[in-house]
Amino acid sequence: MTDVISTDAPALRHGLSAPDIKVRSYLQTVTHRLRHDPVTLFFLAVILIIALAAICAPWIAPFDPNKTGTLYRLKPIGFRGFILGTDELGRDMLSRLIYGARTSLVMGLTPVVLATVIGGTLGVTAGFHGGRVNMCIMRIVDVFYAFPSVLLAVAISGTMGGGIQNGLIALTLVFIPPLCRIAETTTTQVRSLDFVEAARASGASSASIIIHHVLANAAAPLFIYASSLISVAILLAAGLSFLGLGVEPPTADWGMMLSNLRQAIYVQPLVCALPGVAIFITSLSFNLVSDGLRQAMDVRA
Amino acid sequence: MFNYIVRRVLFAIPIAIGVTIVCFSLVYLAPGDPLQLVLPPDATADDRAILATLYGFDKPIPVQYLNWLMRALCGDMGVSIQTSRPVFGEVIRALGNTVVISAGAVALAFTLAFILGTVAAYNLGKPADRIATAISVVGVSVPSYWLGIVLIIWFSVELGWLPATGLGPKGSAGFSFLHWEQARYAILPIVTMSFAPLGIIARNTRAAIADVLSQDFVQMLRAKGLGPLPVLRHAVRNALPQILAVMGLQFGYLVGGSILVETIFNWPGTGFLLGKAILTRDVPVLQGTILVLAISFVMTNLVVDLMQTAVDPRIKRS
Q: What is the pTM of this model?
């Protein structure tokens, strides 16, 4: 089933003789396409570098990210060993940006993974059982879908109070509805197909039908959609901490750094813009890699 | 058609009720006793009991919900803990300001995105398409709160062309686009807000028009000898209802998610109100704003859906 016959299109077009037909597995096709997509590969490398910097932060950061220095407040880029300058409390910007990558990646990836598992489970359950179960789950999801994502995230973490944990809960709740819908749609489609009927007729249990047929078909669209949510999660999480609803100070976080440096735009505009550049590059990279994956896996948007 | 409208409106009602339940529950999500916020620190247990009866907190939760809902329907959402002013009036006044910049942002985004998307779809895979696609990816990836700061640094601090924050010159009461002195205050917020919808609308336009262009009837038009512009005109006419629907939804998202941009520009809309309410833990304002915004979003969705059905004769929904 996984064998896909991929033909070399130009060869076919110009091929006066027999077209060049190769038989590749799905995974091979996807990796083959990715390998020929320089944009995706480049931004994948950017993500890996950011992730590596986040993991190795204690070893590569030139300074302690929380060490303040009254003498070195708001110094420009390149000032006496502070490669990217210092912030309003005299802390090294580069070190804080490297440590901030940790918060950003955690806040970007955790809610998406959690929401994929929870939303996927809910969606598959709703789609597979249909009827009243579907009705109950999907109507509740519809209600949460009726909130704009920023509003829902702000409403939940605004009332529960700031902090990384509440932020994670809020973002997970924001992402469950769309993922649940995708899982439900694919499951409902697959469930009515003949091969599922055949599997059932040959005595397959519900569990094995879900694992072998439903999940096999729902996994790709879910995965692609989830990957496109990572950049949304990073933007939203940094937005929440920009509003004072994120991590507790002095933990380094790009959104909070941006909000704290807002008062200093008249003094050091360039330094003040840096945390935003970090957010932008990270979210752009995740967006482009997700687009590349979507094309390589050939899932319709 | 009529049946569809009735069904669609009826479908929106349970959603709206669900939304009110979520908004009502927000108070119970807040840590601690909701009365703690209004009680002075030296209040006795008796004071607390009196106040609980006064606010109806002694009744069972479903009864509290119904009472709350009835009052909210009549436009009574309580008073702000900070300012003692009625919440409903504050929210409605702020909503007007938010709609002004959201509508401006969507109009700007749509104009640019429509051109970008059409050019990209017509030149699928060519450099023009690459550039247009790159612009739309940048649009959805750029954090609006950072973009706002960059624009302030550039146009207000460095160049001094536009005012950085606020609704208008000192002493102005409302907002009006007719006076340049006031309208210039809205330019930076509108530009900042337009980036995300620009990216999304451009993507959808590209996909929709490319889809139409790949259909057989376009092939026929070309075979008939039509030039590029008349062909595009046919494609646009076919794709437009779908694109307009995306635009309507983006407007809804902007109104609901205006908090970040309004916080940066001190623009006194609903988002700004919400931000202030979060900082001061003003629960009635928080709840009221979220309720009004969520219900507006449900209504926007409804209107967009109905308009799309009305505009597009191909959609026959049973």
A: 0.85
